[in-house]
Every structure is written in C-alpha cells, then in structure tokens.
C-alpha cells in the first residue's frame, strides 16, 4: 500500500515537472491533456486520478516553476558576496543562456500573459508566488530602505521579464543581445541611483 502511495506522489510530481517545461514552450493553452500526459510518458486515462482538471495542472505547474526560479535566485545569492547579489541575479536572468532555454527558464515570460486571462484562482496563485519572488530580490538589497528595496525589486522583475520576452521574440541575433544588455544596464543603474551609488 505504501508503495502505491509513494508511486502516485512520484508520478504526480513527474507530470507537474514535464507539464511545466511543456507549458513554457507552448503557452498555457498550447497543450491538451493528452499532450501534457504524453510529456510525462503516460496516457491521458489516468489524468483525473491526479488532477481535478487541466486548469488545476496548469496552475500547479506554473506555481512550481515560480518557486524554482525563486529558489535558484536564493541559491545564487548565497554563493556570492552580499554587495554583488542583486546584480548577479539580473545578469544571470538577462543572459543568452536563459533566453535560449525557454523550457527550463523562468515561467514569467512564457505564461504571465496567459495567466492574466485565466481564472481568478490562477491569478491569485500567480500573485502569491510573484510576491515571494519579489521578496527574494528584496533580500538582496539589505542596505536599502524597505519601501525602496521593494520598488527596485518589483521594477527589476518586470523589466527582466519584458526584456526576455522581447529578446526571444526577435530571435538570437544582434538586436536580441542588445535588448538583454539594455535591460541589464537599466536595472542596475536604477538600483544604484536609488541609493546614490556610483555606476
């Protein structure tokens, strides 16, 4: 009996992980239940033993992906000196590597617009996870007043997301690289100007 319970938990986790990657590539409305289950190497027949609806899977998949991005930021921050943490998160996010790996990158550029057109429950979940992401960035700005740190963090995430969306939309050429560079410069300059630091 325990094996069956553990097996179901592992299977559910695999479905969420594979769906999360697929949704980032295709968008929230780009994959059917059949296609989502196929990504996990399963048939669609068992879908409803794991999720109440397709929307429930989509919601859990993007929430999990947002948590992973926040965890990656926290891990990156722990590995470098405090004064370099904010800039390191921005640089890693607005990189060619992140731009080119849509399936494993941040879910915000891929699904934010779709979630905005989704259910109230999905938007609420998204907002809660976004708050947590903002808080991770705020913690990398310990020398800023709380209100200023939150404003910088929120602005940075919005600019990072928009920059990745545009960089992906134009392809992997000179303009795409320019968009990433402009985003990095704008965010770091704004953060340092807010506290009168030299840039």
Describe the 3D structure.
This protein has 199 residues and is an all-alpha fold. The chain has nine helices and no strands. It is globular and about 55 Å long.
Strands, helices and their partners?
Blueprint: H1 2-26, H2 33-39, H3 54-78, H4 85-93, H5 96-100, H6 108-116, H7 120-138, H8 146-170, H9 174-193
Helix pairs in contact: 1-3, 3-4, 3-7, 7-8, 8-9
Which structural category fits the helices and strands? mainly alpha
Tell how many strands the DSSP assignment holds: 0
Mass-distribution shape: globular
Q: CATH topology of the domain at 55-193, anyone?
A: Tetracycline Repressor, domain 2
How far is it from the N-terminal to the C-terminal residue, by CA? 61 Å
Summarize the structure.
With 199 residues, the chain is mainly α. It has 9 helices and no strands. The protein has a domain at 55-193: Tetracycline Repressor, domain 2, CATH 1.10.357.
List keywords for this structure.
199 residues; mainly alpha; 9 helices
């Amino acid at each position: 009996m325990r094996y069956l319970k553990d097996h179901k938990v592992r299977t559910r986790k695999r479905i969420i992980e594979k769906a999360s990657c697929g949704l980032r590539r295709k968008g929230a409305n780009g994959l059917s239940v059949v296609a989502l289950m196929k990504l996990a190497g399963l048939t669609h027949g068992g879908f409803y033993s794991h999720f109440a609806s397709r929307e429930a899977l989509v919601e859990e998949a993007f929430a999990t992906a947002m948590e992973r991005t926040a965890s990656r930021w926290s891990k990156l921050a722990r590995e470098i000196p405090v004064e370099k943490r904010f800039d390191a998160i921005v640089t890693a996010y607005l990189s060619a590597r992140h731009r080119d790996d849509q399936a494993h990158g941040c879910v915000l550029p891929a699904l934010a617009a779709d979630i905005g057109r989704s259910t109230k429950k999905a938007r609420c979940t998204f907002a809660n996870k976004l708050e947590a992401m903002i808080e991770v960035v705020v913690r990398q700005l310990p020398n800023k007043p709380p209100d200023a740190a939150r404003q910088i963090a929120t602005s940075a995430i919005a600019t990072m997301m928009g920059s990745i969306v545009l960089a992906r939309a134009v392809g992997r050429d000179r303009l795409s690289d320019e968009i990433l560079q402009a985003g990095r410069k704008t965010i770091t300059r704004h953060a340092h100007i807010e506290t009168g630091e030299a840039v």
